[in-house]
Structure formats: structure tokens, C-alpha cells
Write a structure and sequence with these properties.
Layout: H1 3-24, H2 40-43, H3 51-66, E1 83-85, E2 91-95, H4 100-103, H5 121-133, E3 149-152, H6 160-165, H7 168-188, E4 193-197, H8 199-216, E5 221-225, H9 238-258
Parallel strand pairs: 2-3, 2-4, 4-5
Antiparallel strand pairs: 1-3
Helix pairs in contact: 3-7, 5-9, 7-8
Amino acid sequence: MGAQERCRELIASVARLTASLRAALPGPGLRRHPFAAKYDDHLERSGCDTEWGRELAKVMDGVYAERTDLLDHRVRFPWLQGFLGDPNARVWFVAWYPSTRAVEKIHSPNATCESQWLATGGDRIFRGNLVRVGFKTGTIDSSGGWKCYITDLVKADSPPSEWDSTSEAVRKTAYETWLPVLEWEFSRGHPRLVVTVGRDVDRRFDDIWPALQRVAQRPLQRTTIRHYAFFNRGSDTPANRQKYEVQFDDVVKKAREIA
């Protein structure tokens, strides 16, 4: 076989490979993973295989089965569960969504669910305050010791730029898609004081608060704190840290009032 024939054969092989890859990919605009979403397959690799996690996984699987355009980040990051801590705790923190930008900062092959909310400087400030006021024992990066529960309003992994550039209607669709998951958490857990993390989450809670109160079947109180990502945007100053500590102190005060 001459050089020209070998070159043509190589080009043909590359073309066949490209065609097969394109056939395996989802259509335009979709971010679907080529594998079916089934979180149970990845729980053992998350480091936090609990009964709560297994049951909640089934609810999340239902969302991914219904919305095949969503990227199931759990295939790539089995430890990124979107919840952490003790669901029987009376204080719950509800954040917005898992951030790809933050998640990809964690390169350790030994990452577990305890690696959540520990990727950025803002995460560590958030955790530091949890330890300071007693919502977590041990250190900010030690396993366990949770005296609170942390969860995401939207469990799907999404780059911040997507949410920052989408319309209010698209954002509403996102949290309404995941509302059944949050309702499941509120119906099975034991929250008494719900702390929304950031203005975006707090604004959306205005819409879903009646539904969450109904499924919880118990009196719920609500307050808010600044989002920890604030400290990743050039705002990590002693004055801002002090203001953040005051917000956590207020949470503790409210928690004691309902104890």
C-alpha cells in the first residue's frame, strides 16, 4: 500500500470514528449524559452510603428520568450528592445549586460526600462558622459531627455562567423541576429553622414556602444568610467576615428560640 492509499485509509477511519461518536451524543442543546441516571450505582463510591442517601437517590433518579436534557453529574462526581449532614437536625441550610467551577477544584480520587462545601475559600468560611457556632463538631474538614443539614434547592450540576445568563422564567423552571426532591426531604426530615443561603434562594422560597410548610407538617421558621460564594469575588475582608459571623450568631439565637 502506497503512502497516498495509507493516508486515505486513515482519513476514512477517522471519519467512521467521528460518525459513531456523533451518533452516541444527544441532540443540539441537550446536556444529557450518555449513560442512564441511576445514583445507586455510584453511592458506594461516594463515601456516604446511608439509608437517607439511597432513598433520596431514587427521588433524584425520577427527576433525571423525566428531564433527559439534564446532565447527571453523579456519574462524574459520585460524591457530589447535593446534601450533607443530619436530616434530623432542627437547623437546615438550603443553598442554590452545585457549581461545576467549584466542583472541578477537587481533584482528589479519595473525595467523598464530606468534600462538599469545601472546595473554595467561601466554602471554608461557611464551614468555619458552622464549627464556630456548634452546627458541626471537629474541624471544618473532619468527617461527621454534623448538627445541621445542608442541601441544594437545585440538585443538578450547572456552570454559574448558565444561571447568570438565563431568564427568570428558566430559573423558575429549574427549581420547580427539583421541588419534588426538596419536598421529599422536608417530609422525611425534621427541620424547624430553614436558613436560605443567598438572595436568589431566598427569593425563590417565597414561591415554594407554602408547599414546604405543608409537606413538613410542623411549624417552620425561616431566615437567611449571605451566600458563601460572596467571599470568592474579592469580598473576603475582615469587615465582611465579621458581618457573616453576626448572621450565624442570629441563626443560633433563632434556633434556641424554637428549641
